[in-house]
Amino acid sequence: MFNGNLKLPSLKDLPPGTFNYQAVVDMLKECNINDPKYTEKMLKHSQRMESRFSPFKTLPCANVPPLDLIDSEACRKPGSKACGACKLVSYCSKECQNKHWKKHKGLCKSYMRSPDWIPEWVEERRLPDFLPANMHYDPATPEGGSDGGSPLWNTMPPVDLINLGSNEQDKTKDFNLAFVASGDLRSVMKTVNSLPDDFSGNLKIVINDQDHNVTWRNLVILLSLGRLSVDDGVAPDVALHFWFSLMMPEAHAVKAAAVNGDFVNSMQSQTGDSLKPYPLGPNSTIKAALSLETLQAYTLHMNMPRVGAWAQEGYDATRMDPARIDFWGRIYTFLRPSHRAAYHMYRRFGLVLPFGAVTAEFNFPNASLFTDKGKWLQNDHVIPLQGWNINEVIEAGKARGAHAEDIFGCLYFYLFDQLNTFAKRIQKFRIEFQLFPFEAETLSRSIQNDMLAQMDLGRCTVFDRIDVSNLLDHTSDGLKEVLTQWAPLLAEREDSAIVGYFKDWGVLQKDGRIVNADDAICTEALKVLMQKTQPIFRDSWDRLGKLYRGVTKAATFSLLKELDVVYENSKPFAQFLKERKAKHLLRKTQLQLRGVHRIVGPRLMVPIQAPHSAMPTFVDEDDCPMFVNGMNASDILQEQMHGPFKGICLWGNIPAMDLINLHDNENDVTKDFNIAFVATGDLRDVVKTVNSLPETYSGHLRVLLNDGTSPIACRNLVMLSLLGTIPDEKLAADVVLHLWYSTFIPAEYLVQMATAVAKFLDGPVERLTTSRPVGLHSTISWCYTPEAMERLMRITTLDPSSLSVADAQNEYDRVRQAPSRRDFMDRKYLRLKPSHRVALQEFRRFGIVLPFGAPNSHFNTPNGTLFSEDGRWMLRDFADPLEGWDIREIIAAGKACGAQPEDVYGCFYFYLTKQLRILANRIRKLKITFQLSNLEACALSKGIQGGHLESVGLPPTVRFDRIDLSNLFDSSYIGLHAALTSWAPLLSESNNAVVVGYFMSWFINERNGRASNTDAVVEIAKKVMSRHKAANVRNKEDTQTLLYKIQPDFDAVYENSKHFASFLKKQGLETLLKETNLRLREEHTVIPHRLGSPLKASSAALPSWPSDEDWYIYTALQDNTWAERFVEFSRI
Ligand SMILES: [Zn+2]
Ligand SMILES: [Zn+2]
Question: In this structure, how many other beta carbons lie within 10 angstroms of the beta carbon of residue 206?
Answer without folding.
Answer: 25
